[in-house]
Design goal:
about 525 residues; two-stranded antiparallel ribbon; two-stranded antiparallel sheet; about 5% strand; membrane; hydrolase; phosphatidylinositol-3-phosphate phosphatase activity
């Protein structure tokens, strides 16, 4: 330090805990699917005191708090956060910081990683957090095999929950800044579980050389690839992208009253102590439901616009209806007769019956030509409907209200100016069904309209009182439940592993659906036609 006259040395004492993990009835290497903390107790050696906090079954308030304080766990968490905040504040003020400890792979990795998360919003995203672990922990040689005790040959004094401390410090920051992180608590728990499960080669070995010698990139799979396939499970519904601009630097509060006991980690599998429903899962489901309905509304608005143009309505009148000034029930009658009972329609030609909503049935001044639809969806003739401002097709189709009652006045109606409808034709038969057609546009069938209305669930089933999936897989508190966007039912991740675009969505993005709905959508007729 004598060579650096303007440097200031700030020694900070951070202890590396020695921990001994005891498994009850399970050997971790033989039971890779059992998370490491499911049946373990952590003994923190602090002045010959042993505090067994997480395995207390029915502790009293004093017993639990005394043992938690005796373990010194939260004291160490606060010390790591405080040191990381010191580094982040110094760098934020423009001061260069050199962090160094005895080895450089335990406390250095903890503090530098947390300081990076505080300073750079990129490290608060899922991809950035993975890059941070690769750089600060895997790249700089944190001894995962020794610290986690993955081999029996590892000495007990080498084991220590250093990485668990880091994950908890991140969780404590997430509690204080819930909108700053793209990932949720389940993301941290999954990483922690698979460090001990050894199902993936990402955290095996003490350094990069060990992983190269073992050829893990060739013989094992990466944890990051698995998590990217299940990224929807780890999204934080409260995350705001604008938080990066409003608060690019976040400095957590390390005071005792700001820290919490991580019940989700240390008491994850104990029943009766968790909330009945996961708040983040409910928020995420509500957000997905809103996205689905908004996308469905966009498509319905396009369809309403198309049908109104076929009826000869002006653009101004259509926009007035879509903005909620007047109800669009003039098309409701036409579609309601086809939803759910499209196969019951007659194959014969349809004779229109016209109805005046004020005076009742009336006779047309001139006869109307019959309309016949062939099995291929083409028309033998086109009906020329004249003087039918308040008319509609009858038979298998309900009435369409008059212009005045449906909100279209004579001044805005193309029908009143032209004296007729732009070739409004309809019929049912074979596989073609009713068809709406206008000059210069592709054919839009009733079957396609019905498919669009049926393939989007308007109401989603509540997570409450759903304790198992249809495949009999139980739903624990930290097992994510998924909604099928088509039927709205609740399923586990295995039963909803497929995604497919729904005909009822405007943007046609692949969305998660259950297996029966996936097969049904795959068999549905193609709906590839213009949306405008």
């Amino acid at each position: 330090m004598s060579l650096y006259k303007k440097c200031e040395q700030t020694p900070i004492s951070l202890e590396v805990l020695q921990a001994r993990w005891r498994l009850f009835g399970h050997v971790l290497r033989r039971e890779p699917l059992i998370p490491a903390n499911k049946a373990m107790a952590c003994y923190f050696h602090d002045n010959a005191k042993r505090a067994r906090v997480s395995e207390l079954k029915k502790p009293s308030m004093n017993d639990f708090l005394n043992r938690l304080e005796g373990s010194g766990w939260l004291k160490h968490i606060a010390a790591v956060i405080d040191t990381s905040a010191f580094i982040a504040r110094a760098i934020s003020d423009g001061t260069s910081v050199l962090v160094h400890c005895s080895d450089g792979w335990d406390r250095t990795a903890q503090t530098c990683s947390l300081a990076g998360i505080m300073l750079d919003p990129y490290y608060r995203t899922m991809q950035g957090f993975q890059a941070l672990i690769e750089k600060e922990w895997l790249g700089f040689g944190h001894k995962f095999t020794d610290r986690c005790g993955l081999l029996e040959s590892v000495e007990v004094k080498e084991t220590s929950p250093v990485f668990t401390q880091f994950l908890e410090c991140v969780w404590q920051m997430m509690q204080q800044f819930p909108c700053a992180f793209q990932f949720n608590e389940r993301f941290l728990l999954t990483i922690h579980d698979h460090i001990y499960s050894c199902q993936f080669g990402t955290f095996i070995g003490n350094c990069e050389k060990d992983r190269l010698d073992l050829r893990l990139s060739e013989r094992t799979y990466s944890l990051w690839g698995y998590m990217s396939l299940h990224s929807t499970e780890y999204l934080n519904p409260l995350y705001k992208k604008t938080y990066e601009i409003k608060r690019p630097v976040i400095i957590p509060n390390p005071s005792p009253q700001a820290l919490r006991y991580w019940r989700g980690m240390y008491n994850r599998f104990e029943s009766g102590i968790h909330p009945r429903e996961n708040v983040q899962d409910i928020s995420s489901a509500a957000k997905d439901h809103s996205v689905s309905l908004e996308d469905h509304v966009l498509l319905l608005e396009k369809r309403v616009t198309q049908i109104c143009k076929l009826l000869g309505k002006s653009e101004e009148a259509i926009q007035r209806k879509l903005q909620g000034h007047v109800s669009m029930d003039s098309i409701e009658g036409y579609l309601s007769g086809h939803i759910g009972d499209s196969s019951s329609a007659s194959n014969n030609a349809v004779t229109p019956n016209y109805y005046n909503h004020k005076t009742g049935p009336f006779d047309l001044p001139e006869p109307v030509e019959m309309v016949t639809l062939t099995s291929k969806g083409s028309f033998d003739s086109v009906a020329q409907l004249e003087g039918s401002k308040g008319a509609s097709l009858g038979g298998s189709m309900n009435h369409i209200k008059s212009d005045s009652e449906s909100g279209f006045d004579e001044a805005s109606s193309q029908l009143s100016r032209s004296g007729g409808v732009d070739e409004l034709v309809g019929g049912v038969g074979g596989t073609g069904g009713g068809v709406l057609q206008s000059p210069g546009s592709d054919i839009l069938t009733v079957e396609q309209l019905v498919a669009e209305l049926k393939t989007v669930a308007i109401g989603w089933k509540s997570f409450r009182n759903v304790f198992s999936c249809s495949c009999a897989s139980p739903f624990d508190h930290y097992v994510k439940k998924f909604h099928c966007w088509k039927c709205g039912q609740v399923f586990c991740v295995r039963c909803i592993a497929r995604s497919i675009p729904l005909p009822g969505h405007y943007h046609r993005r692949p969305v998660p659906v259950c297996k029966p709905c996936y097969r049904e959508v795959r068999r549905s007729p193609s709906t590839e036609f213009p949306l405008s």
